[in-house]
Amino acid sequence: MTELVRFIATSLADQPDQVRVETVDSDEGTIITLSVAQDDLGKMIGKQGRTARAMRILLAAAQRHDRPARLEIVAA
Question: What is the CATH number of the domain that holds 11?
Answer without folding.
Answer: 3.30.300.20
